[in-house]
Amino acid sequence: MNSCALSPPVLKLVLKIRLLDGRRQHDRQGVVLVTGAARGLGAVIARRFHASGYRVAIGDITFNAAQELASELSADHSTAFALNLDVTSKDDFSAARDAILDKWQRIDALVNNAGTSKVVPVMDITAEQFDHVIQVNLRSVLFGCQVFGQHFADAGAGRIVNIASLAGQNGGSATGVHYAASKGGVITLTRFSRVTSPRAA
User: Fold this and answer.
1) At 155, which CATH number?
2) Residues of the domain holding 70
3) Is beta strand 80-84 parallel, antiparallel or unpaired with respect to 55-60?
4) Amino acid 169: pLDDT
5) Is residue 76 a contact partner of residue 68, using CB atoms and an 8 Å limit?
6) What tens digit of pLDDT does each residue of 10-19 get?
7) What is the pLDDT of residues 122-168, one digit of tens each?
8) Does 3 fall in a domain?
9) Residue 20, in any domain of the structure
10) CB 129 within 8 A of CB 118
11) Which of 18, 105, 114, 116: disulfide with 36, CB 3.0–4.6 Å?
12) Rounded to whole angstroms, how far apart are CA atoms 196 and 188?
């Protein structure tokens, strides 16, 4: 999705988090990390959160693009800043958490949005192509849920939104079987995580 228009599902998720955390917005601005936020859907989500009053950490492996968006939203980076985030690395998620806490002393939500897709016929997908899509689209969600789920458990509050796709339910041959498989995994991981949330350390 490359349009800057906000789709109804994205608007719904932003407003849902806003409403759920509304009681916490009276004295301090909320803080959200959006992964894969330098462009496309991630940038749309980041802009919407920022427009709704959130301070936004823009996580992306394309750091220069993330910095450009952060500067567009907040010239002095007081309400938006960029993070060099490789979502295939759990250490990067931990570093992102620490950087956000150092800057704003709180985190209220994580949006696991980062993803990749390249249409390749199923019989032509290489092991490297399959592994790359799984790492970016699925393993990243696991790492985000582990790192931020534990932080939210310790803090006593927090929201995680995992971006999946109808391809994960219906197959989605237009996006490639490796993409569909990864998004199906995101759906399952999200359902499982809801009943196995971490306890405070």
Assistant:
1) 3.40.50.720
2) 8-195
3) parallel
4) 65
5) no
6) 555 555 555 5
7) 888 899 999 999 999 999 999 999 999 999 999 999 999 998 776 55
8) no
9) yes
10) yes
11) 114
12) 12
Q: Would you say residue 201 lies in a domain?
A: no
Identity at 100, one-letter amino acid code: I
| Cα–Cα dist 86/93, whole Å | 8
Q: What is the DSSP string of the chain?
A: ---SSPPHHHHHHHHHHHHHTGGGTTTS--EEEEET-SSHHHHHHHHHHHHTT-EEEEEESSHHHHHHHHHHH-TTSSSEEEEE--TT-HHHHHHHHHHHHHHHS---EEEE---------GGG--HHHHHHHHIIIIIHHHHHHHHHHHHHHHHT--EEEE---THHHH--TTT-HHHHHHHHHHHHHHHHHHHSPPPP-
**Residues 30, 79: contact at Cβ < 8 Å?**
no
- Highest-pLDDT range among 15-24, 27-36, 66-75, 127-136: 66-75
Is 130 within a domain?
yes
Q: What percent of the chain has pLDDT over 90?
A: 59
Q: Give Cβ neighbours of residue 2 (< 8 Å, ≥ 6 apart).
A: 39, 40
Give how many domains the chain has, as a whole number: 1
* Segment 99-111, tens digit of pLDDT: 999 999 999 999 9
Catalytic center residues: 179
